[in-house]
Amino acid sequence: MSGSLPFYQKHHRHYDRDYRSKETVSKLSQYQTSSRYTAGSSTSAATSRSSGLNVSTHYGLEASRLSPILKRAKPTYLAVDKDHQIIGYVVPIFRGSQEFGSGFSSREEARVRDSSKYMARRDLFTSGMEMERSEQTSRREAIRETAERISLNKRIHEHGVHFKRMNEDSLMHTPEFVIKPRSHTVWEKQCVRLHCTVSGWPDPRVVWYKNNVAIDPVGHGDKYKLESKYNMHSLEINRCDFDDTAQYRVSAMNSKGELSSFASVVVKRFKGDMDESLPSARHGPVCEYGVNFKTHIVDKFGVTFGREGETISLGCTVIISPALHRYQPEIQWYRDDVLLSPSKWYNMHWSGDHATMTLTHLNKEDEGLYTLRVTTKSGYETYSAYVFVRDSEAEVERAPGAPLDVRCLDANKDYIIVTWKQPAVDGGDSILGYFVDRCEVGTNHWVQCNDTPVKFARFPVTGLVEGRSYMFRVRAVNQNGMSHPSRVSEPVAAMDPSDRARIRGASAPWTGQIIVTEEEPAEGIVPGRPLELQVTEATKNYVVLSWKPPGDKGLEGVMYYVEKCVAGSDTWQRVNTEIPVKSPRFALFDLAEGNSYSFRVRCCNAAGVGEPSDPTEATTVGDKLDIPSAPSKVVPIRNTDTSVVVSWQASSEAKELVGYYIEASVLDSNEWEPCNNKPVNVTRFICHGLTTGEKYVFRVRAVNAAGLSQFSPESEPVEVKAAIASPAPPYGITVLECVFDSMVLSWKQPTFIGGADITGYFVDYREVIDGVTGKWHEANIRSISERAYRVSDLKEKRKYQFQVRAANMAGVGIPSLPSDTFLCEEWTIAVPGPPHDLQVREVRSDSLVLLWKPPVYQGRDPVNGFYIDIKEADAPVEAWKGVNTKANEKTFFKIKNLKEGGNFVFRVRAQNKAGVGQTSEETEPVIAVTKPGTKEIVVDVDDDGVISLNFESCDTTPDSKFVWSKNYEEIEDTSRLTIETKGNKSKTIFNTPAEEDIGIYSCIVTHTDGASSSYTLSEEELKRLLEVSHDHKFPVIPLKSELAVELLEKGKVRFWLQADKMSANGKVDYIFNDNLISQGDKYKLNFDKNTGVIEMIMDSLTPADEGTFTFKLQDGKATNQSSLVLIGDVFKELQKESEFQMKEWVRKQGPHFIEYLGYEVTPECCVVLKCKVGNMKKDTSALWYKDGQEIKADENLGFTEGVLKLEIAQRDSPADKADYADDIIWRRLKISKKDSGVYEVVLKDDRGKDTSTLNLTDKGFKDLMNEVFSFIANSSTPLKITSTENGIRLYTFVSYYNDLLQVTWHYKDSAISFSDRIKSGVVGEQLWLQISEPSEKDMGKYAIEFNDGKGGLRRTVELSGQAFDDAFAEFQRLKAAAIAERSRARVAGGLPDVVTIQEGKALNLTCNISGDPVPEVTWLKNDREITSDEHCILKFESGKFASFTITGVNISDSGKYSILVKNKYGTESGDFTVSVFISEGAASKKK
């Protein structure tokens, strides 16, 4: 700001300037006098007032202080530029008007002159006294001047206040922000102050908001502090934290209006803990740490289509850099530029990097252009896309769509006007009208408001209850049925508008308006006449009247009666006779359409009915609002592949136009679909969701409350495809060669070609001298098609810049950015220059093909090869690595083994004999991924033998072209190839395939996302294709099977073959020995063309039929034949077999064997003879014979086909019987040699007999037994080890044992020679090997081998190591136990259990005693030892016999006696009881 003052010099009313020195004040006054900025409304006015007024004017003002000054301009202290934009403050000479400036001018000049004199005296005189006196004088003058200035300022201020008071109306103006609050970025725990300066009269009321929420300093006194002094307002935030990051708004409001200003506060945090040495809170503005945010919106939502009732979500990813922790940008959603707020219809979510809005229940009101706005302190970014909402499925077929946008207007105590918009879909029949429903808030009860449908899209609803809130909805109806109801309106209360305003104003900020209401009505006053009665709306269904209440008092209880009068008569009829209305609005229904009426209104209250108002003029009942005229001049314009821009001329003289509906139809289909379901109020609309490549026509109609207009004329057809635009600028300009007066440039194709092929390029150049650029000059007048061009006529040793423009059929695009500055001097390096024009094709998940053009500058020697480098796109420069180690001679290379999904860049270097040259420009990043729908070139040979290469692309556009190349050079010579393209398919046909056609054939499709493929035609592949081509030119009918012969039932002979494929025109010739065979008794010929089976059947063969049989096939030009030679032994065998089959057929006419007699070994090792028989009946008998003797007869078999069985091993008589189940347990006999023999079965009945024989002798019986042995062997258990007292035993169990079974025991793979020490045997089903007195020599591997006549079965066990040690230890233990058992003392026998003896008799008992050593013998009586004496004699003789003798027994000898024998191996006892009785004779004697 040239000439403006810095902030610290700005003079505010509240600003103290006493710190300035007097010299500074003086110089400042002079500076202000000469300033080009004014302190009033204009510079000229201020100047004239300053020069025209003197001190006397001041005295006059003082004498007459109450006299106003006429035409005084409003004082201001703002600095403005030439465009009248405020740029700062101006500090005037005095804080007031300049009328009193002249009173100080002479005094100021005198003081300056005194100062000059003082300086001169100080130079001439050095006396301190004089200097001190002079300084005192100057100081007194300065003090006097200050006092006078303060006094004058006070008078000026008082005068200004008086002037404002006297001229208030002329000075009132809306608030203005002289200084707006600034945004701040501060560290956490610091304090920040936002301040602003506001002007306005009356003084504005200032309110601070945080994120649109008013700040309450009382409730948060420790957090916020508000100050307001001298129109300067500040908000101080103490100890900021992350929650204080927000947008702050300051609102200034007075009676003239309201104005707001915004500022953002961003709170940052240190990486470490907060340092206590950080600056603490201070007063005054806080310095802002600047952060420049950059916002990018990615992953954007596109054009979205939904249906009523569905839920959709719109979302974008938002990237904000730099990323500040917990910093929250302001996320806002708009629909058609209207800010949306969260509600039951909209859910908005911000996750920190993703903004989402969910439309929970779509309605047509939700259709529109949705915009996401992301606001930071550095600005905002937006993204928009359209959302289309289609009608939901109608409940009744061909019913209309639901109305939309239901709103409530002009709400009063008992009257509300409901408006809506007509739907775009009428169901095929015109809409008859609409029904309006209402529902009281808090209930779910809907009441229909009108009995008959109304066509006008506006309806007055009456009969409401004052003070209650209502919601409304609308339904459309046509002759087919009713639509779905619309979305409900917002709730609205039935009350007086002034009451509603008073209720709303209770919580609203002060506006400076004061509403005065009557607290109590005056009693007994009849109200006056209503005022300003008028007809506000008239349709053929109703008329709406409005008026103003009378101006008299006593209106609190006023109601109204409405009266009508037919025009031309004086008869007035009261309309609402029963219930007067409370609102100054009324809707009249049931008026005769076409008649004219006048209306008037009367007021009434408790005091009575007042006088009527002035009547209205005659009003004719009918629609005052006409249906708009049809739009015209509908023009469609191509936009994208799925959208068209439609524009039209607006309806002429359309009143209250709501908008337009656009419909589209595929050309000649006559089926129209709406493009929008919500009216648009513009004359240009983008119709989305169209089919690419189709041609459409469009029509438009307008809509207002009266209805929908006629359709506009149909537009011209337009094809849906992307619009053509001029291409984007090329880029990447490089120098390929430089000589003394020319340079060869190359560049890259524009990223956007504008939807059409680039037709050429234009190159400009300019000279650069000492960094100063000259004018651009054209290098070429005609466009060039290549992306390389030699710019000639340059000056050597001069510097140049270049720019390139691309052109297509739409025009020439904008030029590229100027290239780097290049020096024009001849290259003399030995190595080649850089290759150029790198292209990437055939991108797949693991490979791609890289093409380039050789360098223009060859170097000292010709280029002899190329090297390709690769690196990931985001890798550093050091990551470049070579792809090929050996130089590639061609200008293309297939790069393989890429990492799927990797992002790569490539470059190429050329080499000659001198070395490797400069690197080319790197390619654009390429992602290694096979795109969905990618096709490959397919080779095909048609029925005529024509070889072709075929390529198909799914991504073609109408402008796409298939470009075929050989060895990646476009094919121009069509003598050898014919190229045909149709739709999205292209074919290259080889005219005369030969070796010169060998090569790599590729195809690329323009105007696609790189659709390309290649096919390598090698020498081997060409040879294969030529063979296939020959087969197709000279086709052979393929055969699934060659000619063959087989025998049928009755010995018939069938010759047959099967062709793979033959048409209905195919035919066959049957030939025998070069003679054509025809249908007859001997030959039955058949050709099934559906299956391709060809057959010839002969009943039998005779010697005359020996020879060659041939079938010749022909189908169009395709032929084939197959022959079968039947001569010699082959023919005889076939003839013999035919005769046998004939006999077999005869045999099977009676009972016969289907399967002849055989045997089966069951898992139980039983041998069962069985055969399968057929054609049996009840009287058929089956006889079994063995060696010619009948062994069994089966009669009355009772089945026609079954199995006969005979078990060879018969069973004995029952061995045991089970008492519990009445079952008989049979003991099975094992098969033996006596069961061998010849077995025979004979079937016979009255139809004949059949015989089957089975020889089970010699080899037959041996084979049978081997199968039995195989079952036995397979049932054997693994070989186990056990120990006995004699040694170690190895054993196995079998399920069944047969005496004929042969087994062999092996030790270390050698058969064991048995001896007394090693024996084998069988116990029941156990086979064992006994090793007596084993030793370590017996350790090793043992096996038992079962011989079944085949491979046999061997079971093995390892007797060594721990197994041998355990078995040997167990053997030793058992052996010792056996010895102890044999040698221990025993009572062998001889003692009875009880001895009964008569008294006086002698008792002698003897028992055998054994044991080694000889045991000790002890006798016991009643468990007490007894010794030998004369009465009881005890003897032990020969160590074997012990005797017990009692010479004469008596009663005392009765008792229990025991003999106890004992040696070192054990003890054993024998017990007996002696019972002595007295004879009868002896007893009587004793008595």
* SS-derived structural category: mainly beta
Main sheet?
Answer: 6 strands, antiparallel
Low-confidence parts, pLDDT < 50 over ≥5 residues? 1-79, 85-105, 272-289, 505-522, 1210-1228
Count of helix runs: 12
Helical content band: 10-25%
Q: What is the number of strand segments?
A: 103
Radius of gyration: 62 Å
Terminal CA distance reads 171 Å
Structural key phrases:
single chain, 1487 residues, mainly beta, 6-stranded antiparallel beta sheet, 5-stranded mixed beta sheet, 12 helices, 103 strands, disordered N terminus
Tell me briefly what this model is.
With 1487 residues, this protein is mainly β. The chain has 12 helices and 103 strands.
Describe the protein.
This protein has 1487 residues and is mostly beta strands. 13% of the residues lie in helices and 41% in strands. It contains twelve helices and 103 strands. The strands form 26 sheets. Strands 47, 48, 49, 51, 52 and 53 form a six-stranded antiparallel beta sheet that branches. Strand 45 and strand 46 (743-748) form a beta hairpin. Helix 4 runs antiparallel to helix 5. The chain is extended, with a radius of gyration of 62 Å. The N and C termini lie far apart (171 Å).
Map the helices and strands.
Layout: H1 22-33, H2 43-52, H3 55-63, E1 78-80, E2 86-89, H4 102-124, H5 128-166, H6 168-171, E3 173-179, E4 184-187, E5 192-201, E6 205-210, E7 213-214, E8 224-229, E9 232-237, E10 246-254, E11 257-268, E12 294-298, E13 304-307, E14 312-321, E15 330-335, E16 338-339, E17 346-350, E18 354-359, E19 368-376, E20 379-390, E21 404-409, E22 415-421, E23 433-440, E24 446-448, E25 458-462, E26 469-478, E27 481-482, E28 492-493, H7 497-505, E29 531-538, E30 542-548, E31 559-566, E32 573-574, E33 585-589, E34 596-605, E35 608-612, E36 619-620, E37 632-638, E38 644-649, E39 657-666, E40 672-674, E41 684-687, E42 695-704, E43 707-708, E44 718-719, E45 731-738, E46 743-748, E47 758-769, E48 772-773, E49 777-778, E50 788-791, E51 799-808, E52 811-812, E53 822-823, E54 836-841, E55 848-853, E56 865-872, E57 881-882, E58 892-895, E59 903-912, E60 915-919, E61 926-927, E62 938-941, E63 947-952, E64 962-966, E65 969-970, E66 977-982, E67 985-990, E68 999-1005, E69 1012-1017, H8 1019-1033, E70 1039-1047, E71 1053-1059, E72 1067-1072, ...
Parallel strand pairs: 4-11, 13-20, 96-103
Antiparallel strand pairs: 1-2, 3-5, 5-9, 6-7, 6-10, 8-9, 10-11, 12-14, 14-18, 15-16, 15-19, 17-18, 19-20, 21-22, 22-25, 23-24, 23-26, 26-27, 26-28, 29-30, 30-33, 31-32, 31-34, 34-35, 34-36, 37-38, 38-41, 39-40, 39-42, 42-43, 42-44, 45-46, 46-50, 47-48, 47-49, 47-51, 51-52, 51-53, 54-55, 55-58, ...
